[in-house]
């Protein structure tokens, strides 16, 4: 029921945006989702998430009432204009994903789903608060909350947390992005609608290696999602409407959501704004913007002082120098002067070129502002540690080739660029050429010089954007792994896939946009119509060829994934828990419903890379799982081991006891221990760990008599309840 309520609310807000602000119906769905998520982000940062979410649902309920009663729009015209191929595609795709994910009981199973993405979604659902506002056992750096809040909104009215609904929320955002491609189509365009529907359903399956063997629509990783939303931000600009102000305001919430998925979203948002800026500079629509319309007058007169003010506040926030803060007062006073100047009707002289610059400038300031707003919130909340990365070289020194480690990373990047296959058509270079040429060919077939120039420049923007994104990835790898003597670019294909996922959708979208520029509604006769619609035929043929290649030529890929892992093409799809998680879930299942938020658990798992700890941390919620002593694998004092690569830590009964006391641990779960632990620590356990080799895995109650710690076995959840009862009321 909660899924249907969320779906109806999204459609209700979309209807409001379409009927009230003339936003294209197919584009309104993505704008609706983005606006809802941005609203939840802002409410969440002020610790009013529950109230904010409830308010959004109430607003969605009132939207049709407002349109019918206040605006007096006839229901027939309102519905007929809204039910378009794009909206229907979104609804049907969402329903299909709901059925597949629910019936297959899709569950988390991969590392990062437990280290952050799935765990964060569960924490938000259980607490109705952002994970930054209270102490939790999330170990990794915290990402922005757009995706956890998306799943929160979807299951707001549910009593329990469902993992498959996290996947479903991601899939709905993807469906909303794909529906933007239908914005220029009506029900008469049956062939184009069918081809685009196929493209929207299966195109992401061409990104094989990027999902690392995971089904496309059954992963909570943000990498593909942020790439798709990047494409959505670009497509909104080109498809959402005819007027510049509609496109401008429609792009704002999508850019905000893009920034609030991951930090890399800021780079992608700037690339999207760069594409919009090029389009504005080549657009004739801006000639109308020098008039006396109130919106344009306010934007024109106040955007410059507002820009200076925002930049001043950002610099002031990140500056520790008294001298610099004093210097910042100069532009601050300048912005006040410009505000006063405009108040006296001494407006800045109007210029078409200046106006064209102001739109992307304002969008840039918006994404920078929301990015720093989240970072300011994170710093003020100060609940999850974000360790600063200190690197000996500046960015300028790295770019100019003075950092040997950065140069080595770039060398490995170049090798991977020739070898790594993210898209099934071939190595990265093949995809780079294909996605660069598609918009150029679309513009060329218009036989219009301005259209050819427009789409060629846009193609260059996204090619240059990839180079910027590529260098930024190299910078991140350098600053993260500079202390390693050797590394093999962990998760490199997945991170590169982010950009190619968005670029693929954008390139095909621009081909269809070019086709719209040459359509003629007045053409009569079969051959004349074919001639006028040659770009549409080209777009359809190229798109259909790409879709068919996914089905027929993917097996030639060295990274071919068996169809059993395709969510939409097999009844045997592997979306259930893997063996490792099944073991932990099964062994902990008798206890999990009896754990309390006040419980502090130490999870004993040695000879492990830490993956089991993240799974246990997720399963034990709402209890708090403390970090391991060192890296978790106990070895005797004096053991020689590699402090960087090894998971070993020198430990004794005394140091282990001290660590448990310092972290106020009251429960211990023994999952996997080594020989050293069995020989040296078994005396601490009342049962001596005698049944460990029999496969017994259970909780132990940590008892401190003031001199030493002992561990009493807990065989059932009811026994755990008794322990909690004694802790709460000693007389029981």
**Total of helices:** 27
Give the integer mean of the pLDDT values.
82
Low-confidence stretches: 320-325, 342-349, 522-531, 558-566, 569-575, 727-732
Number of strands: 7
Kindly describe this structure:
This protein has 732 residues and is mainly α. It is 62% helix and 5% strand. It folds into four domains: 2-184 and 222-291 and 350-381, no CATH class; 292-349; 395-565, no CATH class; 579-728, no CATH class. The chain has helices spanning 2-21, 25-45, 49-70, 75-82, 85-103, 111-127, 146-154, 163-180, 190-202, 223-239, 244-259, 264-282, 294-317, 322-343, 352-381, 395-399, 404-419, 428-444, 449-481, 492-517, 526-532, 534-552, 579-592, 611-620, 653-662, 675-681, 717-728; strands spanning 600-605, 624-625, 633-635, 648-650, 667-672, 698-704, 709-714. Strands 2-1-5-6-7 form a five-stranded mixed β-sheet. The chain has a two-stranded parallel ribbon with strand order 3-4. α2 crosses α7 (146-154), α10 runs parallel beside α12 (264-282) and α12 (264-282) packs antiparallel against α19.
